Amino acid sequence: MTSQKKNPIIALFASVQLALSLLFLLAATSIIGTLIPQNNILNFYIEKYGAKTASLLQILDITDMYNSWWFLGLLAFFSMNLIVCSLERIPQVVRTIRKDGLAVPPEQLEKLPLHKVLTLTASPGETGQRVSSFLSGHGWKARQTEKEGYQLFFAEKGAWTRFGVYVVHCSILIILAGAVVGSSTVANKILHNPYFAFKGSMMIPETDNADHIVAFKSNKRIDLGFTVRCDSFAIEFYSNGMPKTYRSRVTVIDGGKPVLATDIEVNKPLTYKGITFYQSSYQPYQDYVVSLKKQGGTVEKTEVIAPARQADWSEAGVSYGIINRESQGEVTRRIKVWFTDNQGEPSQFWVNVNQEAKVERPSGTYLFQARQLYATGLQVAKDPGVWLVYSGCLLMLVGLFIAFFLSHRKIYVLVRPQEDGSSRILFAGDANKNKVVFSEKFTDLISKLET
Amino acid sequence: MDSSQLFGITMIAYLFSAAFYLGLFIFKTQRIGLIGMLLALTGVIVQTAALGLRWYESYRMGVGHAPLTNMYESLVFFAWCTTLFYLFMEFRFKARVIGAFVMPCAAIAMAYASFSSRIDTQINPLIPALQSNWLIAHVVTCFIGYGAFAVAGGLGLMYLMKLSAVDKKSTDASLCASLPELKVIDDLTHKTIVFGFMWLSAGIITGAIWANEAWGTYWSWDPKETWSIITWFMYASTLHARFTRGWRGRRIAWLAIIGFLAVFFTYFGVNFLLSGLHSYGSN
Ligand code: HEM
After folding, report:
1. How many angstroms separate the CA atoms of A403 and A405, rounded?
2. Does the pLDDT of residue B49 top 70, yes or no?
3. Which residue of B has its CA nearest to A382?
4. Which residue segments constitute the domains of chain B, with CATH numbers given?
5. What pLDDT score was predicted for residue A4?
6. What domains are there in chain A, each with its CATH number?
7. Mean pLDDT calculated for residue range A230-254
8. Do A386 and B212 touch (CB under 8 A)?
9. Contacts of A242 in chain B (CB under 8 A)
10. Which DSSP string do the residues of B90-133 spell out, in sequence order?
11. How many beta carbons lie within 10 A of that of residue B31, not counting itself?
């Protein structure tokens, strides 16, 4: 080992003690942010903790601690630690794996924790052949060597599993890299390209459209490069009144042409050109979408109207308006409609929203339906790092599995001739992990040769 | 017969099972331990049926979803995972007395789920945010991990008891004589933590994917997420202390207990003491 003449900084970063301290520090400091509410305005902290404490919290960035210089610094330190520590150990692992099992001095084999001696009456030559075919018959591809006074066979499995640990470590770095790539702060302040990665929201009234979002935190406008139209928004409820579905029907308009029409629901986002739209909120308006149809006719009309305004459908020669409402909070339950075809007295009636009313008039029967106008609130994110994060996660699970449950197993068989012409066989084995399971397999294997 | 009655039977089976395992620990009569095991086994079979039935009932109510979506259901599932994991361990490693340290945990979870006034036992429909298969994957993976960590905590406690009895050669020495060898407990604790760590990692990952599908952010440092990563850091430290610094025995036993306290806080404390996205558990 060259560890004596190492640069002290590298030595520091290579140390596992530092890793343990950093893991502890990360865990301990993370607690702070769960106790002190994050990302509120200054007045909130002043009211809650007093002016002095509040300014201290602000100086130390504790009001947004997971993005603070010191917490990110801790993470950077941790990553350096992980990189240096792993790089330093990998050559050692490569050496361990390359080590030739046939070069092991025979005396050492008896010192391995797993060993067993058998005597076979066959000659060493025959025995050697038998051992070799026995091993390969049980999935152990053995190499062999003949030296003065002995034959040695060596087989190993899973040498590569020694890299499992480094797969895990590497996966952590990949996840962190993904977080950096997808960070809107990095896109803004380092790449100076807010479009590269962002998070924000848009509020689109039904039948209206929007071509930009407002970014979180900075409140900057970011153009999407295409337009999203909200065709309709609907909430469905369970019978007990709990919300069941929030659904926006949207159309993406790119280059002036509608290219995609789909529904967005919670847990069913829409992704278009790397930008993902999530159903996140809604806003009821005090306007109504009225659909009108004449029974037997082919024409229809849909229009957005405000209450207490007269609207005309000139093709059919009718006029209508909403003259009264019953609401619960901002959500309208019933409306009172005024309707006339300019023949006789106008009709006036109450109808529930979303329910069809039949209006009998001298000129025919009309079907009237109104629903409240909503705006859909979409959260919009562009995160080019998310695939790195997901790959890192997958890699981590694979790496953990390798590191924890697979092992590097070795079997040595030493055959020596004895004076009476029989052969003395020494079986020895070793595994770097899960030794108990391996020792069972080892014993099992030998018992098969004995029979 | 409905699922709540079956859960009631499960709870009683676990309570008695815990009592019998404690009886085994104190009186060292093998037959008492056998009864404890049979009760735990009966309990887990009944509970499996109850889980299936509750699932079916939710479909009959027209709100069909796996029974893994609120505090009540998660507690019940926790008890199920813990018992199942424990029984597997008992069969695999033949150390029955460990039940005295694990089954009380499962019994308390069931009793708390059934009797606490803070917990709603009704089957409720799912609000839109919870309608995701990732939710199921998330809860299942997390709770397999939590079950393992509960067992590891019990093993840690057992280790410390045995250790103090061995050190003092006191009167408890006879009480602890029936416990497995210190080395065996230590090894089991480690294996259990390793198993739990794997599942906790998977739990955090599936949770992150779900959050990204629902809100477009895989990690938002809300208190529950933060506490889960704190727990993860703690177990990662424990594993490294063991692998690279050679920590064994007493220290690992303490870390197993502290780790479980962190799990407990992540699961309960956060819901009741802190506020955040995961507050669905608190009502
Ligand atoms: C939270 C982050 C980390 C995780 C999840 C993690 C995971 C692991 C895992 C699963 C093992 C395998 C143990 C085994 O089966 O042999 C391991 C070993 C190890 N880790 Fe980490 N690790 C993390 C951070 C670090 C850091 C920052 C260092 C930097 C010094 C480090 C250094 C080591 C070393 C030296 C080993 C032993 C390798 C060996 O067996 O030779 N780990 N780690």
Report:
1. 6
2. yes
3. B216
4. 1-120 (1.20.120), 132-283 (no CATH)
5. 55
6. 8-95 (no CATH), 109-158+407-450 (3.30.310.80), 167-284+376-398 (no CATH), 285-374 (no CATH)
7. 87
8. yes
9. 124-125, 127
10. HHHH--GGGHHHHHHHHHHHHHHHHH-TT---S--PPPGGG--H
11. 11
Phi-psi region of A61 (alpha: psi -120 to 50; beta: other; left: phi over 0): left
**B283 pLDDT more than 60:** no
Please name the residues in contact with B102: beta carbons below 8 A apart, sequence gap of 6 or more. B21, B82, B83, B86, B150, B151, B154
Residues 97-136 on B with a CB inside 8 Å of A are: 124-125, 127-129, 131-132
CA-based nearest distance A296→chain B, Å:
38
Q: Looking at the predicted structure, is the pLDDT value of residue B191 above 60?
A: yes
- Each residue of B115-165: pLDDT tens digit? 887 777 778 788 888 888 888 899 999 999 998 999 899 999 989 888 887
- Report which of A88, A92, A82 is spatially closest to residue A174, judged by C-alpha positions: A82
Residue contact B234–A27, C-beta within 8 A: yes
pTM of the predicted model, to two decimals?
A: 0.87
Nearest to B69 by CA among B149, B134, B151: B134
Higher pLDDT, A289 or A7: A289
Asked if B128's CB is within 8 angstroms of A245's CB, the reply is: yes
Q: Which of A209, A201, A298 is nearest to A249 (CA)?
A: A209
**Which residue carries 């789920």 as its tokens?**
B113
Per-residue pLDDT band at B95 (split at 50, 70, 90): confident
